[in-house]
Amino acid sequence: ILTNATAQPGDVLVLTKPIGTGILATAAKRGHLGERETATLISSMTTLNAVASRAAVALGLRCATDVTGFGLLGHASHVARASNVTLRIEFARIPLLPGTREALAARDTTGGAARNAAYLEPLVDYGRTSPDDRALLVDPQTSGGLLVAVPPSALAEYLARVSGAVAIGTVEARGPHAILVS
User: Fold this and answer.
1) Which of 84, 109, 143, 164 has the largest CB neighbor count within 10 A?
2) What pLDDT score does 154 carry?
3) SS3 151
4) How far is CA 115 from CA 32, 69, 157, in A?
């Protein structure tokens, strides 16, 4: 069983799919999304997390959460609080679906993103991230990937088993914030 309550300091945070589905779906509804971006969006949302979750179980990993309506940071905050740790996320490592930044520039955001941002404000130290980068981190996802805490000894094998998975941060001892973005 994978739970959100067993992340340990030293674990590596792995994201199994790019983010941006909320912004892109909003852009598509408004007629602002090209055919290629729409096809990539649909492909991402219809790709299940079966491979990623089975690989985690097969390797004996213990901590994962799906990334859905609360956005990447919302679900990360649940892991941090349930595991009594702080998650450090390196923004530059987070993969985005094609067209996400352009749709964000056109202000194709959701009401859910604003609610997520308000909820997360006291829990996150955003460092030097821009307002647009923050919007990406709180974007509600539809059929997003998994955020998995992977012990360093299993990292290479997990990344080899899960196509597109990317290490985006680390788990640290609990500090004043649930999440640190650098």
Assistant:
1) 109
2) 98
3) coil
4) 23, 11, 37
Chain Cα centroid distance, residue 57: 19
Res 73: pLDDT = 98
- pTM of this prediction? 0.97
Cβ atoms within 10 Å, residue 89: 23
122-138 burial code (b ≥16 CB/10 A, e <16): eebebeebeeebbbbbb
Q: With beta carbons less than 8 A apart as the criterion, state whether 24 and 33 touch.
A: yes
| pLDDT tens sequence across 17-28 | 999 999 999 999
DSSP 60: T
Q: Say how far apart CA 120 and CA 72 lie, in whole Å.
A: 11
How many angstroms separate the CA atoms of 169 and 172, rounded?
A: 10
16-55 in b/e form (b: 16+ CB < 10 A) is: bbbbbbbbbbbbbeeebbeeebeebbeebbebebeebbeb
Element (H, E) at 125: strand 124-125
pLDDT score for 1: 87
Centre a 10 Å sphere on the Cβ of residue 83 and count the other Cβ atoms it contains.
Answer: 23
Amino acid at site 117: A
Q: What is the pLDDT of residue 66?
A: 98
